[in-house]
Amino acid sequence: MKMRRVSIRLPESLMREMDRLVRNGVFQSKSHIVRVAVRELLRKELMDEELLIEG
Asked: Got the DSSP string for the chain?
């Protein structure tokens, strides 16, 4: 899968928590965390949208 680079700004507190998750081996990298979070958000939003259309 081809990936594109995106720049974002996050509060320092979120960065510390992301670093902790990577350090503890929960995720491979901060990029991995962001990809998972975006994928889950899109899945939820698209599901909600489908429910509204069907509803």
From this structure: -----------HHHHHHHHHHHHTTSSS-HHHHHHHHHHHHHHHHHHHHHHHHH-
Q: What pTM did the predictor assign?
A: 0.82
| Per-residue pLDDT in tens (0 to 9) along the chain, 55 residues | 899 999 999 999 999 999 999 999 999 999 999 999 999 999 998 887 776 676 5
**Cβ atoms of 33 and 19 closer than 8 Å:** no
And the tokens for 26?
Answer: 């929960």
